[in-house]
């Protein structure tokens, strides 16, 4: 593969890992905020456990799919994949000849943060 193809593949891999982690973070944030402020309006679906009939019948409560909540192992796998994809993307960018870097979009800002 050429340096450009390596970069394009690394960019795609990073975007996929970043999107998956972003979706998970948003889900955790939404449910977490509700648990902190309006826990009486939270119920999870598709996971073991039961609720009182009044909760089950309350149509004002939006159920959140409990399968979307990652356990620590899944979250760690997602973070690991993101970090590996980030390193691969940074390396691919650096290995691409300067002439090619000047004509393609650079990696997303999230991939290049150093602090």
Structure in a nutshell:
The chain is mainly alpha-helical and 115 residues long. It has helices at 3-37, 53-56, 72-95, 98-101, 109-112; strands spanning 43-45, 63-65. Helices cover 62% and strands 5% of the residues.
- Order of strands in the sheet with most strands: 1-2
Give the strand tally: 2
Helix and strand content put the structural class at mainly alpha
| H/I helix tally | 5
Low-confidence stretches: none
Helix content: 55-70%
User: Globular, elongated, flat, extended or rod-shaped: what is the shape?
Assistant: elongated
Helices and strands in order:
Blueprint lengths: L2 H35 L5 E3 L7 H4 L6 E3 L6 H24 L2 H4 L7 H4 L3
Parallel strand pairs: 1-2
Task: Give an account of the 3D structure.
The protein has 115 residues and is mainly alpha-helical. It has a domain at 3-37 and 66-106. 62% of the residues lie in helices and 5% in strands. The protein is built from five helices and two strands. The protein has helices at residues 3-37, 53-56, 72-95, 98-101, 109-112; strands at residues 43-45, 63-65. It has a two-stranded parallel ribbon. The longest helix has 35 residues, at 3-37. The radius of gyration is 20 Å and the shape is elongated. The two termini are 32 Å apart.
């Amino acid at each position: 593969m050429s340096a450009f193809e390596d970069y394009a593949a690394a960019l795609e891999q990073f975007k996929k890992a970043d999107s998956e982690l972003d979706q998970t973070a948003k889900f955790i944030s939404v449910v977490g905020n509700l648990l902190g402020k309006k826990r009486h309006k939270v119920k999870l679906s598709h996971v073991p456990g039961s609720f009182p009939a009044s909760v089950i019948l309350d149509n004002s409560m939006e159920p959140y799919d409990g399968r979307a909540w990652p356990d620590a192992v899944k979250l760690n796998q997602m973070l690991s994949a993101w970090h590996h994809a980030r390193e691969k993307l940074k390396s691919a960018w650096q290995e691409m000849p300067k002439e090619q870097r000047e004509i393609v979009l650079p990696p997303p800002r999230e991939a290049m943060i150093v602090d």
